[in-house]
Every structure is written in C-alpha cells, then in structure tokens.
Design a protein that fits this description.
This protein is mainly alpha-helical. It folds into two domains: about 40 residues; about 150 residues, no CATH class. Helix content is about 45%, strand content about 10%. Helix 5 packs across helix 6.
Length: about 190
C-alpha cells in the first residue's frame, strides 16, 4: 500500500506546485507585462486617486450625472454580491420594480417623452454592468444639461465623443461607459458651487 501511496503524494505535490503556483504566476506575469492596465483591474484614477474600474458600474443618483443600469447586486454594484435577481418576467416583484423605476425615471426626466430604453429598467446578469446604450444616455441628456446649466447640444456632443462602437466593427453593441462619461462631464462642464 505504501508503494502506491508515496507516488500519489509526490504527484499531488508536483502538480500542486506546477498548476497552483508556477503556471498562475507565469500567466499573471505575462499578463501584467503585456496588458498592465487590464491585469490590474482596468482602474480609473482622478487626481491621483483610484475612483473606480472601467469594468464595474457605480451608483450615480444626483441629477447632474448620468445614471447607469439598475443593479441587483447587493445595495447596488456590490461586486461581492454579483449576480442577477433571477426574477422571471411574470414575477410580480420584477414587474413592480420595473414600474417603480419607470415612474421614477419619468419624474426625474420630465423632458424625455419617448419609450424608456430597456437597459434603464432592467439589470444586467451580473448586476455590475458599467455601460449604457447610447439611447439610454441620450434619454438623460436634458436632465443633465438642465442640472449643470449647459446647453443640451453640448452634453449630446460629449456623449457622442464618449460612445464606443462595436468591438472590431461587428461584436457587441455601441455603448457608453457611465463612469468615464461622468468624469468627462466634470472635466468639460465642472459644477458651479
């Protein structure tokens, strides 16, 4: 029995070192040297301070900022509680939440008269989506412009400059990173205190 147990223990130790230490260390080292920004979490800094990540949404509630998608992750965009609500389309809790969010959006954005874009009412599968569709951001332009005392056309131009097109021209949909757009907004049209 010892003849069979010792090779198994040795093999477990060797594979643990190879696959648990050496391989992850090598891959991490290569990633950090080739893609340092992405390997570090795609962090965004302002004034020398990390304020977020390109990959995780944040909750913006003030009228002078663009607001992201609803989040089902904890108290909103909590990466430790990432996940969808798992509520189906016939679930009354989901129907009530969407109706409440639609009423809130209409109240906060009285100048918008069209159909509310779906991504302003539905959470992503992770609950951490940092992006909005250009239509969802455009629906908020009048509110943001009014709150900042800026012409809506200027806000729309800033939005257009911060809209990312499809990856490689055909993958995904056009999108706007809400945190980056709000940072550009603060830089171009700072709040008057």
């Amino acid at each position: 029995m010892l003849q069979q147990l010792l090779p198994a223990i040795r093999m477990t130790l060797v594979l643990t070192v190879l696959t648990g230490l050496l391989y992850p260390g090598l891959v991490t080292g290569i990633a950090r040297s080739i893609f340092p920004h992405q390997a570090s979490g795609s962090l965004i800094e302002a004034n020398g301070k990390v304020i977020g990540s390109e990959l995780i949404g944040q909750k913006f509630t003030r009228p002078e900022y663009f607001q992201g998608r609803p989040s089902a992750a904890g108290e909103g965009y909590d990466a430790a509680n990432s996940g969808g609500s798992n509520l189906g389309p016939t679930n009354q809790a989901l129907v009530t939440r969407i109706k409440t969010d639609a009423e809130k959006f209409r109240k906060e954005n009285p100048d918008f008269t069209g159909a509310i874009p779906a991504d302003l009412l539905t959470a992503s599968a992770s609950g951490l989506d940092p992006d909005l569709s250009p239509a969802s951001a455009a629906a908020q332009v009048p509110r943001v412009a009014k709150a900042r005392g800026v012409d809506a056309r200027d806000i729309q131009q800033l939005l257009d400059r911060n809209t990312q097109s499809r990856q490689f021209g055909f993958l995904g949909e056009p999108r706007v990173n809400v945190l980056k757009l709000n940072l550009a907004l603060d830089q171009k049209f700072p709040l008057k205190r």
